[in-house]
Amino acid sequence: MLSKSSLGKHVWLLAILFFALFIRLWGINHGFPFIFHPDEPAVIRSAMGIRFDPNPGHFDWPHLQFYLNYGVFFLFIKFRGLLQFLGLQTKISPLFPILWRDPLVFYAISRVFSAVLGAVTAIPVFLTVSNLFNRRAAIIAAAVFALLPFHVHTSHYALVDVPMVFWVAWALYFTSRVYVTGRFWDYALAGLFVGLATATKYNGGLFAVMVPLAYVLRVVEKRESITNPSGLSFLISSAAFAGLGFALGTPYAFLDYKTFLRADSPLGALWQFKNVGSVDFVTRLAQLVRNLLVKLPDDFGYAPIIAYFAALILLVKNKSPKLWLLFLPSLFVLVYVSGFAKTRSHYYMGIYPFVAAVGGYFADYVYSKLQNVPIWQFLRVVLLTLLLTIPLALSVKDSLILSRKDTRVLLYEWLSKNITVLDYVIYDSDDVAPVLEKFSGNTQHKGLSRFPPEGSQGYIILSDSTKTYDFTNRKIVLELLPNFRPGPRILVYELTDRPKVPNERK
Question: Which InterPro entries does UniProt cross-reference here (predicted)?
């Protein structure tokens, strides 16, 4: 148990962790009873399938998160069985009906698991910055990480990206210890966590570069021989532990290596590398610049990424080895991922602990430079406000939106009250397909090229914002707008005359 003095010492970190968890759990049931993200079912079904076969049978993603989810599911099933054995189901079910609603409850559990991992990732970020710099910088870095908008958003889903960042952050912490102490177990644990990150998502393997980097920076600063037998043996051991971590998380990469090495379908890991594609050097630079100016600022909440590059200028001036340890791996991943044909936001998530750590360092650096300025207290408030307010506002906005009913859930509720078995349904997008599966008794058709016989009753449901139709002769019976709620804009018309030819929006 924490003593009062220990609790007081960590009160800011505990407050950050509490808020990080709160903002990630707020809206965690978004979309229920439907699952609209296409990747969530793949994670949950793979995890549940481990009950029957420990080999998921596909390697488009590595398997660690499947096994961890299965472990959590197993404990939940035992707990639920105990409640039933004690005769408590009738009392608890009215209060928490989702507990007996399969498979929806497993999506909820996995989302909560992801949110918890996302929130506590602030701990290794704090430890890293505390180890490299000081406690004040560490607290700020933890706060920055807790509020990164895209990380908060992704923590609401049962996916592999947030867990991968969790392992990368721990790998970064032990890598920082490699630089500071050079002890064997720091090398070993840094490698192990890199392996676990890779066993969660293959992108995690890119961060293996930081362990040898820490070794080089350490021997240069200590003026030791880079071929020191002890140091090299530690480095080799780190690589071995990385392999062990990957093997523990994805053992069937070795036991079923023929499937693992396939590149002709999503069953194989090599397909994943092939699927992201690659671009030439000029296009890579163009994508890097575009992502730095547009995509990443929005994902980070603007201020943290600005602080990151402001600190990069300080690095050129100060040449701090500690900053090199944070910058070189993250810049390497930035440049490498920008060479993919597909550069989605979640491909960059592994650099989040690095950006947050640099943000904490930069804020502390400015603090120390302004400490003797007469209006120091005011400037301190301004600095923290600039660094944290925009990420906070964007994260709160996103969680608020997710906490409100999806437009497709509202469509489902409306159809449940208004549709009859005789109604014909025409829709233009797969966005609403999960909802219409609940009305399988109705005749349905995707696309507006074919209409039912004249005089048929029913509805036309439009959710594809890339097309426009002339429905001026039809009565609109429902319009659902995504104003501070998730989901597409949905228009529902009564089925009457045939529409005019749709026009693609430029």
Answer: LipidA_mod_glycosyltrf_83 (IPR050297), RgtA/B/C-like (IPR038731)
Q: Which residue has the tokens 């430079």?
A: 369
Amino acid at 243: G
The encoded tokens of residue 138 equal: 């560490």
Beta carbons within 8 Å of 455's beta carbon, 6+ residues apart: none
What confidence tens digit (pLDDT) does each residue in 169-180 have?
Answer: 999 999 999 999
d(CA 381, CA 247): 47
Q: Which of 178, 174, 177 is nearest to 194 (CA)?
A: 174
Secondary structure of residue 34 in the 3-state scheme:
coil
Distance of CA 104 to the CA centre of its chain: 20
Separation of first and last alpha carbons in the chain: 62
Cα pseudo-dihedral 48, 50, 55, 61, rounded to 10: 40
Residue with tokens 């602080």: 307
Give yes or no for a contact between 149 and 394, defined as CB atoms under 8 angstroms apart: yes
Break the chain into its structural domains and give their ranges: 111-403, 407-504
Whether pLDDT at 304 is above 60: yes
Distance of CA 402 to the CA centre of its chain: 15
| Contacting residues for 303 by C-beta, under 8 A, at least 6 apart | 359, 386, 387, 388, 389, 390, 391
Q: What is the 3-state secondary structure (H, E, C) of 178-207?
A: HHHCCCHHHHHHHHHHHHHHHCCCHHHHHH
Q: What is the DSSP string of 333-392?
A: HHHHHTTSS---GGGGGGGHHHHHHHHHHHHHHHHHHHTTSTTHHHHHHHHHHHHHHHHH
Long-range contacts of 258-262 (CB under 8 A, 24+ apart): 259/57, 259/58, 259/59, 260/59, 262/59
Distances (CA, A) of 492 to 86, 260, 293, 429: 48, 46, 38, 13
Q: Express each pLDDT in 1-36 by its tens digit.
A: 455 556 567 899 999 999 999 999 999 999 999 999
pTM for this model (two decimals): 0.93
The yes-or-no verdict on residue 503 having pLDDT over 70 is no
Q: What angle do CA 457, 460, 462 make, to 5 degrees?
A: 170
Q: Is the bond leading into 103 cis (omega within 30 degrees of zero)?
A: yes
Please count the other Cβ atoms lying within 10 Å of the Cβ belonging to residue 64: 26
CB of 223 within 8 A of CB of 231? Answer: no
Of the candidates 460, 448, 465, the one whose C-alpha atom is nearest the C-alpha of residue 500 is: 448
